[in-house]
Amino acid sequence: MHRVKVRVVEDALDANSTLAQANRADFDRHGVTVVNLMGAPGAGKTALLEQVVADGLGDVRLGILEGDVEGSLDADRLARLHVPVTQINTAAGFGGECHLDANMVRSALGAVALDELDLLVIENVGNLVCPAEFRVGEDARVMVTSVTEGEDKPLKYPLMFRACDVVVVNKVDLLPHLDVDLELLLHRIDKVHPDVPVMVVSGRTGEGIDAVRHWLHELHAAKAAVRA
Amino acid sequence: MHELSLASAVIDTAVRHADGRRVTAVHLRVGHLRQVVPASLLFYFEHVARGTPCEEARLTFDEVPARMRCEGCDHGWVLDDVQFRCPACGSAAVEVVAGEEFEVDWISVEQLEESCTA
Q: Which fold has domain B3-65+99-109?
């Protein structure tokens, strides 16, 4: 018995990337645009979706894949708005995975009627670190941060703030009650991810939600144009 | 906390390349931008490796500094603060040249003398 060195030089997350590409191919085949919605627990991801769903997206048929460690509280909230929702619970993993990966999304796809959708929003597990590491086959990644989380989060979690295509700054209706400096937060987002599009919204009052709807429309239109 | 998932991914990769052989060492290249906490990764590696061919393996890694390049003025710099705009011209069109790696560089495995498949 002796020891030999084996050169590997392989991204440790290659297996996830391969599955993410398979998911993406399925989404493309059905003409579905997919958004991975990420953010801390309590950032207001579900409230944002409720606002988007409430007035609909016109002729774009929206579905939601809801990732949580336990339970279906968020899915129940959204199902009340008559939008197709599929729940993924990650508790079956290593005592409750803290993120969705490509395999979890893949195993849930059988329950999603892709033929009846144009846009699928995957609401990731609330977490500012792990979801940034795992692509699930999405076309775009949206990160929700709320003003109540403070101005320091972009500097503390640059991986997440850099892994997204757009940042939604939520809960701006609370600004009068907080010491948080919105300009400083926006400055720091730009410092970590220069020129990333930012939408300032309130999931409670609906302020700024039209911009989110518009962005989703444009994203889907751009993808449909590429396919045509 | 992402170190648990990362440790699992490292072990899966190492076991696949070990091809049934026992793994004695795993060496990684970890980019600075991956925000990996070494002590945490070591802890989870040991935990997840139990019962796998990596059970006795020693985990080591090199950290790869984050190197940036400006697509506008070609200025290059090593990132030591989370300042992703070009410090020379202020452009947002910057490229991460290195620092996003999370790869298994090599592994060491036990090999029977008579076999020469490595």
A: hypothetical protein PF0899 fold (3.30.2320)
